[in-house]
Design a protein that fits this description.
667 residues; mainly beta; nine-stranded antiparallel beta sheet; six-stranded mixed beta sheet; 9 helices; globular; PhoX family phosphatase; TAT_signal; PhoX
């Protein structure tokens, strides 16, 4: 394995979410690109071309475009003056709005929390302060209020080169500047571990501005060391037993929590995503977990935790990785409660767990597996949601059926149950029971013939229009022979969005229909093949859709991950995307982040008068770090957002966006 502290290596923790390594799905299951290409075959393309030609014979192309623009403008669900796309060291929001920093890495969360001192960091202090790299943001109302509630925030991972002073040295080799990064001390690793996990914090709107309530009785930090329980079919199984936990039920901590969700009964769910980067060492020769871990890319070794803690070293605790890659549920009403890893929902690189109550009262969770050529899932609870008795929903996530999606070229999608004993999920294929099926969810989905997708990230059900929106960030590994002239998306660098309509409007349905809402990228470049409406401006298009939100009016908002100087010439941001009527596929830029940052969240308050967004890893970047050929690190970052003080490092933060003078956003 490459030494990630060598001068020729990039900062390894920055690469975890990129998943640019070799494809690890070994199956010949069809890819979504192949299915899209087959569905929109040349025959269909020619029929469409003939129709357009017939129209064009009587109406000039310019007149057609003008008419389309007018219809889209009139039909848009969003009313705001669009922000200009670009790149600089600050954040920007559409005219008429304020974007206020609410929480920064290191901000105190409790009355006795120490103030943030980046030169004197400790695990004890960090465990009482806001964590690093905020991702998912959720809101749980207190007494039904849209202006007083709990903000729940995931802390996905850490960037030590931006966190700690004195660990990066810049050397020049072969005419290029390279970074040499010193190994972290155990104390610094402990800070990293405390900076992971999640935050639960009381917030209140006062005079139109949000404030943190530092003495909130429900405030809580969850870290990589917080005691948790495994529950559901995998709890107590031999494959999750370790020296520290021979019962196979008690786990310490959670990490790489990317997107997440809030359940209908008001609990907070955290999705464990790129777990492979935290493990190092080698399995004992011939160990039974070798194939299982290979399918997940374990070990990757981006972090140095295994050098200080045996549980992250496969040679010493070979079962430990099976205790991660789950959905974690937290009861926010009890800050002393033990979080539960709900194993019935499957084990993979989870990207979010957004939910909706179906017609019959069961609850449906949509789940993405964020890897190129991996799958889209949904989990349907066995029991029904009880709106009048919160306690009755306590273990609702321990029983239910996990499904994986198989998309067909006729525009239908089938949800295949991942259940031991059904189809190929038998002892003959190495599964002794449902616990094995769930521990190896990816292999089970492989055998079922699920459709290989282009990095499934956030998946959002829409209660207003009954649709489901799937963010597919990109897939640079897709080969040219997997597409044809009607779908020219080889090396799909910019991703796309799929819209699913479940049969009969029933989110528990075994079948549904699908359409491509958007193929993303610059529509002015023909070879990209983007499909934004003609009313979308030069500022309005985007690539790399990642997180999304549906506001109370049913409108779709999309956040991006991966834009920058080289990829698009613009930073990541938040776009409003029309999904209905003449304006369908029209997009407008509302907010953009500083250089090097990813746009996470987003979340709308229940009254739609606030949009909470998470600005993650500002100042980070790709091979040139900030994209301009110079390294960006603690002492010399490409931005000092949000403080812009010479003694403060760049700090991931949550931002609260409100309309000047009050009122709903974008109406």
């Amino acid at each position: 394995m490459t030494d990630h502290r060598s001068p020729d290596a990039r900062f390894r923790t920055s690469q975890l979410e990129e998943n640019e390594g070799p494809a690890i799905n070994p199956t010949d299951n069809r890819t979504m690109g192949e299915i899209i290409a087959a569905r929109f075959s040349r025959r269909g393309f020619l029929k469409g071309s003939l129709a357009v030609s017939a129209i064009a014979a009587t109406v000039s192309p310019l007149a057609m475009i003008a008419a389309d623009d007018a219809r889209a403008a009139e039909g848009s669900a969003f009313q705001f003056d669009e922000l200009q796309a670009g790149i600089d060291d600050k954040h920007h929001v559409a005219p008429g709005y304020d974007a206020d920093v609410l929480l920064r890495w290191g901000d105190p969360l409790f009355a006795d929390s120490p103030d943030f001192d980046p030169t004197k960091q400790s695990a004890e202090a960090q465990a009482r302060q806001f964590g690093y790299n905020n991702d998912y943001v959720g809101y749980i109302a207190i007494d039904g209020s849209a202006e007083h509630g709990l903000l729940v925030v995931n802390h996905e991972y850490t960037n030590p080169h931006l966190m700690f002073p004195g660990i990066v040295s810049i050397v020049e080799k072969d005419g290029k500047k390279k970074a040499e990064v010193a190994p972290l001390s155990k104390e610094q690793v402990d800070v990293e571990m405390a900076a992971h996990g999640g935050t639960i914090v009381e917030i209140r709107k006062d005079g139109g501005k949000w404030q943190v309530v530092r003495d909130g009785k429900l405030n809580r930090r969850i870290t990589s060391s917080t005691e948790m329980m495994l529950s559901g079919p995998v709890a107590g199984h031999d494959r999750v037993k370790t020296k520290a936990d021979p019962s196979g039920t008690k786990v310490f901590g959670t990490f790489n929590n990317c997107a997440g969700g809030v359940t209908p009964w008001g609990t907070y769910v955290m999705a464990e995503e790129n777990i492979h980067g935290y493990f190092s060492g080698e399995l004992p020769e011939g160990h039974e977990e070798a194939a299982n871990y290979k399918r997940l890319g374990i070990p990757e070794g981006a972090y140095e935790w295994g050098a200080h803690y045996d549980r992250f070293n496969l040679a010493k605790e070979p079962n430990e990785p099976n205790r991660f890659g789950w959905i974690v549920e937290v009861d926010v009403n009890d800050p002393t409660s033990t979080p539960r890893k709900r194993t019935a929902m499957g084990r993979f690189k989870h990207e979010g767990a957004e939910s909706i109550v179906a017609k019959d009262g069961r609850v449906v969770f949509y789940l993405g597996d964020d890897e190129r050529f991996d799958y889209v899932y949904k989990f349907v609870t066995k029991g029904s949601f009880n709106a009048s008795d919160r306690a009755a929903n306590k273990d609702l996530l321990d029983e239910g059926t996990l499904h994986v999606a198989k998309f067909a070229e006729d525009g239908t999608v089938e949800w295949l149950p991942i259940v031991f004993g059904q189809g190929p999920l038998t002892a003959g294929n190495g599964f002794a029971g449902q616990a094995d099926v769930l521990i190896e969810t990816r292999r089970a989905a492989d055998l079922l013939g699920a459709t290989k997708m282009d990095r499934p990230e956030d998946i959002q059900p829409n209660a207003v229009n009954g649709k489901v929106y799937v963010m597919l960030t990109n897939n640079s590994k897709r080969k040219a022979d997997q597409v044809d002239a009607a779908n020219p998306r080889a090396e799909n660098a910019f991703g796309h969005i799929i819209e699913i309509t479940e049969a009969d409007g029933d989110f528990t349905a075994a079948k549904g229909k699908w359409e491509v809402l958007l193929k993303c990228g610059d529509p002015s470049v023909a070879d990209v093949g983007a499909t934004f409406s003609t009313a979308t401006t030069a500022n309005g298009w985007f690539g790399m859709p990642d997180n999304c939100a549906v506001d109370s009016a049913g409108r779709l908002w999309v956040a991006t991950d991966g834009q920058g100087p080289k990829a698009t010439g613009r930073t990541d941001g938040l776009w409003a995307v029309d999904t209905e009527g003449a304006a369908r596929a029209t997009s407008k830029l509302f907010f953009r982040v500083p250089i090097g940052a990813e746009m996470c969240g987003p979340l709308f308050a229940p009254d739609d008068q606030t949009a909470f967004v998470a600005v993650q890893h500002p100042g980070d970047g790709g091979e040139d770090w900030d994209g301009f050929g110079r390294p960006s690190y603690y002492e010399d970052p490409s931005t000092r957002w949000p403080d812009f003080k010479p003694d403060m490092p760049v700090r991931p933060s949550v931002v609260a966006i409100t309309r000047q003078g009050g009122g709903k956003i974008a109406v």
